[in-house]
């Protein structure tokens, strides 16, 4: 099966090169001040130039205002917006229309009740990022290296392309793909040696394990 890999939270051209060279199809840039992976606009614009053709550049934002999204999309050439906060379905529709970019909405799962939220966003977003719900009081709404119970996804019928995220690592990604039939996987913490510090060897190991 053809799997697509997204490496999220990249901050250095060497890691973009490692991801692209290992077959990743998406790279994610984080625009969230509290994150150790946060990028300044100028740095993101420079980093985007290093991304080879055919690898999608995704901007991750959290409850961003129009002014913030205007600044990001005006400075950085992008292929997709990832909304990782509490953006409503109406906001997803608005962002898609305003920027003309595909929108991937992150939905956090911790139990079966969260599946209704996922179904709702499948009606408005271009893609769904199925992630672990952050623990109460977490500093970050994502990128916490936590997995959810993959069995929640058994028997799901997807209306949109979706991506599995949350606590994936080079060690568990092959099992995660087999367990969920995910065609796309996303990782951040699992290819880091410390929060925000990516590692080229781990990036390559993740891609190898996901792509077979
Ligand atoms: O990475 C961050 O710092 C971050 C900040 C705010 C919202 C989301 C964030 N990250 C999301 C991701 O990187 C991934 O899409 C996803 O949550 C998986 O992360 P991980 O469990 O660390 O692999």
TrEMBL record:
Superkingdom, natural source: Bacteria
> In the record, what terms sit under GO molecular function?
phosphoribosylanthranilate isomerase activity
Q: In which pathway does it act?
A: Amino-acid biosynthesis; L-tryptophan biosynthesis; L-tryptophan from chorismate: step 3/5
Catalytic activity, as annotated:
N-(5-phospho-beta-D-ribosyl)anthranilate = 1-(2-carboxyphenylamino)-1-deoxy-D-ribulose 5-phosphate
Q: What is its EC number?
A: 5.3.1.24
* InterPro entries in the cross-refs: Aldolase_TIM (IPR013785), PRAI_dom (IPR001240), RibuloseP-bd_barrel (IPR011060), TrpF_fam (IPR044643)
- What does the UniProt keyword field contain? Amino-acid biosynthesis, Aromatic amino acid biosynthesis, Isomerase, Tryptophan biosynthesis
Q: Which CDD domains match?
A: PRAI (cd00405)
Query: TM spans, by residue?
Result: none
Q: Where is the N-(5'phosphoribosyl) anthranilate isomerase (PRAI) domain?
A: 5-208
Q: Which Pfam families match?
A: PRAI
Q: What does the sequence similarity comment in the record state about its family?
A: Belongs to the TrpF family.
Q: What is this protein called?
A: N-(5'-phosphoribosyl)anthranilate isomerase
What gene codes for this chain? trpF
């Amino acid at each position: 099966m053809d799997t697509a890999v997204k490496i999220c939270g990249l901050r250095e051209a060497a890691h973009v090169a490692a991801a692209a060279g290992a077959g990743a199809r998406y790279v994610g840039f984080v625009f969230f001040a509290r994150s150790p992976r946060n990028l300044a606009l100028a740095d993101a614009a420079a980093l985007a130039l290093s991304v080879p053709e055919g690898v999608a550049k995704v901007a991750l934002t959290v409850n961003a205002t129009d002014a913030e999204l205007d600044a990001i999309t005006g400075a950085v050439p992008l292929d997709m917006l990832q909304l990782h906060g509490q953006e409503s379905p109406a906001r997803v529709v608005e962002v898609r229309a305003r920027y003309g970019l595909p929108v991937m909405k992150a939905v956090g799962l911790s139990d079966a009740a969260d599946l209704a939220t996922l179904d709702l966003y499948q009606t408005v977003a271009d893609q769904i990022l199925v992630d672990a719900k952050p623990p109460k009081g977490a500093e970050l709404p994502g990128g916490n290296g936590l997995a959810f119970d993959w069995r929640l996804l058994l028997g799901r019928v997807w209306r949109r392309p979706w991506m599995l995220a949350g606590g994936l690592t080079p060690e568990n990604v092959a099992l995660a793909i087999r367990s969920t039939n995910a065609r796309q996987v996303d990782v951040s913490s699992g290819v880091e040696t410390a929060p925000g510090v990516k590692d080229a060897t781990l990036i390559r190991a993740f891609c190898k394990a996901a792509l077979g």
